[in-house]
């Protein structure tokens, strides 16, 4: 497991260094649109729902996420909570992945679009199918493990600070590896007021 983890970390660092020119941030000056003032590269909230593919159990699941992207000086981070399960969110299931994550990434924003890519670590917990015994009874096993997560977003802005888009992601941990695609709703804190 350790050599595999080392390879993942090395690949992740190469990906971050290689992607830096694509997501270079050029300006932080305020933008004025129809007498309203907006601050580019402001923090934003993402609400997402979609489908994930459970690699271990080879089945499609329902997923949801709440993520918050914030800037520290000129660096971007994303923190949030992700859920994936074989049942709808309100239904009880013994097969469920919960993720709490923090990621570092790159972001490119224009008047009509927001794009980003993030890579980081997660704390994954929940339970997953383990085996079926001789009496044909399914058994599930609880887990609590670290993981690695990568995520990429593309949002179309309806207004400068509100939009919708797509999120592709992958989560790797020992018990519940998944990949998925979700629809995002984007809420930015870019609005600063009106010109009087």
Describe the model.
It is a single chain. The strands form 2 sheets. Strands 3-4-5-6-7-8-9-10 form an 8-stranded antiparallel beta barrel. A 3-stranded antiparallel sheet has the order 1-2-11, with no helix packed on it. The protein is elongated and about 75 Å long. It is 9% helix and 63% strand. It has one domain: Porin (Beta Barrel), CATH 2.40.160. A hairpin with a 2-residue loop joins β1 (31-33) and β2 (36-38). The protein has 1 helix and 11 strands; from the N terminus they run αβββββββββββ. It has 196 residues and is mainly β.
- Work out the count of structural domains: 1
Summarize model confidence as the mean pLDDT.
82
Top CATH class: Mainly Beta
CATH level 3 topology: Porin
User: How are the strands ordered across the major sheet?
Assistant: 3-4-5-6-7-8-9-10
Q: Order of SSEs, N→C? A: HEEEEEEEEEEE
């Amino acid at each position: 497991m350790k050599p595999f983890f080392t390879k993942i970390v090395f690949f992740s660092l190469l990906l971050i260094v290689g992607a830096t020119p694509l997501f270079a941030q050029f300006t932080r000056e305020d933008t004025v649109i129809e007498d309203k003032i907006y601050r580019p590269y402001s923090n934003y909230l993402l609400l997402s729902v979609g489908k994930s593919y459970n690699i271990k159990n080879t089945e499609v699941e329902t997923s949801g996420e709440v993520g918050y992207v914030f800037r520290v000086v000129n660096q971007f981070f994303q923190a949030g909570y992700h859920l994936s399960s074989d049942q709808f969110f309100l239904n009880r299931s013994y097969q469920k992945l919960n993720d709490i994550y923090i990621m570092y990434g790159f972001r490119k924003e224009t008047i009509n679009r927001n794009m980003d890519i993030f890579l980081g670590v997660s704390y994954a917990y929940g339970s997953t199918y383990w085996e079926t015994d001789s009496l044909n009874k399914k058994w599930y096993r609880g887990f609590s493990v670290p993981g690695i997560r990568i995520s990429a977003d593309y949002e179309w802005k309806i207004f400068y600070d509100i939009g919708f888009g797509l999120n592709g992601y992958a989560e790797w941990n020992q018990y519940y590896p998944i990949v998925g695609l979700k629809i995002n709703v984007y809420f930015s804190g870019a609005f600063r007021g009106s010109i009087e």
